[in-house]
Amino acid sequence: MVAQVESITLSNDYPKEESPWKLVFRRFRKHKLAMISLGVMVILFLITLFARQITPFEVDEITVGNYFLKPGSVQEATGRVHLLGTDHLGRDLFSRLIYAGRISLTVALLSVLISSVIGVTIGAISGYYGGWVDNLLMRIVEFFLTIPSLPILLIISAMLLKNQDAIPIPKYFLELAGKLMLLEVREARQAVLIVLVLAGLGWLTSAQLMRGMVLSLRNQTFVEAAKAMGAGGGWIIFRHMIPNAMAPIIVDASLNMANYVVAEAALSFLGFGIQEPIPTWGNMLSATQAYMLNMPWLPLIPGLPIFLCSLAFNYIGDGLRDALDPRLKL
Q1: Which of 173, 172, 167, 155 is nearest to 193 (CA)?
Q2: Where are the alpha helices (DSSP H) in the chain?
Q3: Could you tell me the pTM of the whole model?
């Protein structure tokens, strides 16, 4: 009886087994810069989510005569404060910055989701079936990777923005994108086209990563067991392969968020992205070019969020990579 009690007591001393996601989060928390970056991005997303409630002015509200007001200036007629001043048209920079953040971050998020879905699907099919399917798909991927991405982005963006009806986009998708970005349907078309351009060239690395993971998994015991039970290729790919190969894809997606924020800003800055009067961080930065010598603080207003987002997403990606890598003991 004493031995039985001792065995029960000893068994209670063993630590409880953690779920995989709890283990990942515990490892992620030890990356201090990643946690700080995650907090910064949560705050930015919340600010843009409540853009209508936070902004004191309408995004296109023009105050005649109040051009280039300094930060903290008070509007005499209404008593409202221009926290970051006004631009060359008398529009409140704080309000435009928040609306621009909602559009830029939504474009980056949609681009990541679409490109990841495409890349994961193509990479999983390529790695699982192998043979001529693998050769064909990977040669296509390698061909597109040899082409410089920025010139292609500029060319395709210019063509699509000039002929916006070249790609038929369902109205319900435009309405959904418009609600997410607080845009009218006709304005949302520009943003959706930029999303398609970015995602159309951004799925290549995801495809390569997924293919490599699937190649290492397709001869595992659980795959052979699924085949023995009569499971088809599609079921094995989407039910077993992809869920077990998502760790590098999650890291790649977080790093791509930084790339897409910068890419969208670069396209808009060069005049090939979302056009005025729709605010984005890129075209806000572009509008300061002619005035930055006399008012050097103007480029910092849209430039700082671009820098913060790029830095934060890179640190989050580093933290996820460390947390999801089973070879590291943190």
Answers
A1: 167
A2: 2-12, 20-29, 32-49, 51-54, 93-129, 131-145, 149-162, 171-181, 185-202, 204-217, 221-228, 233-236, 242-244, 247-269, 281-287, 300-324
A3: 0.88
Side-chain half-sphere of 252: how many Cα atoms within 13 Å?
22
Residue 248 CB partners (closer than 8 Å, separation 6+):
209, 213, 324
Mean pLDDT estimate for the chain: 86
**Alpha carbon distance 28, 254 (integer Å):** 14
Residue 59 CA to residue 71 CA, distance in Å, equals: 17
Side chain identity, residue 54:
I
| Residue 230 CB coordination number (10 Å) | 7
pLDDT tens, position by position, 156-197: 888 887 787 778 888 888 999 999 998 888 889 989 999 999
The reported pLDDT for the residue numbered 16 is: 58
Rounded CA-CA distance 132/74 in Å is: 68
User: Which one, of 188, 171, 166, lies nearest residue 275 by Cα?
Assistant: 188
Question: Residue 197, SS3?
Answer: helix
Instruction: Give the pLDDT band (50/70/90) at residue 326.
Output: low
Lowest mean pLDDT among 55-69, 107-121, 207-221, 304-318: 55-69
Report CA dihedral (247, 251, 256, 259) to the nearest 10 degrees.
-160
